[in-house]
Amino acid sequence: MTSIWTGSKVRLRGIEPEDWATFQRMDEHSADLRSVDMLYPPRSAAGYRKWAADQSTHEPTGDDFQLAVESLADGVLVGAMSTLDTDRRAGRFSYGVGICRDHQGRGYAKDAAVVLLTYMFGERRYHKCEVGILAFNEASIALHRSLGFQVEGRLRDHEFYAGRHRDMVLMGMTVDEFADRYPFHAL
């Protein structure tokens, strides 16, 4: 039996309490944090353990949720992704994905995005996915272009990072654009 949560390289799953150490290691790379979200003050190991334990029992609110990204090849946690800004009335949502530094460049982010988009478009009836990417994050912009996202605009001096304001690139993809590249299949 095949799961909608399994792609060709990764499986999306809930966060488990034992995942805390991987998340702590991910947060040790400031450049990676800036490209995904923002820098936060250091957290203790106990703080990471508590966060992971809380995430493992947290029930999603609507269609906003966070998932672990696990490699199919070896069952190792390689990153995380989350949905955000879900708007059922308008049919729009956004998401973020972050892959651990030592697992980047293997296609995990793209595969995870396809799995998530298949669920959000094909099961939750969303019409459009919109993402905001810091302009200096060229890898994420290239990833989203390869997925079929289109540049829809640029917000100048929109976010403050590393001592100055940075531009945000807005990209979007509709369900029809997604389905043209990744047809829906019944499992």
UniProtKB/TrEMBL annotation:
A Pfam family it matches: Acetyltransf_3
Residue ranges occupied by any N-acetyltransferase domain in the UniProt entry: 10-176
Keyword Transferase in record: yes
Taxonomic source organism: Streptoalloteichus hindustanus
PANTHER family: FAMILY ACETYLTRANSFERASE, PUTATIVE (AFU_ORTHOLOGUE AFUA_7G00850)-RELATED, RIBOSOMAL-PROTEIN-SERINE ACETYLTRANSFERASE
Cellular component GO terms, alphabetical: cytoplasm
Keywords assigned: Transferase
GO molecular function, one term: protein-N-terminal-alanine acetyltransferase activity
Xref: SUPFAM superfamilies: Acyl-CoA N-acyltransferases (Nat)
Keyword Transferase on entry: yes
Name used for this protein in its record: Protein N-acetyltransferase, RimJ/RimL family
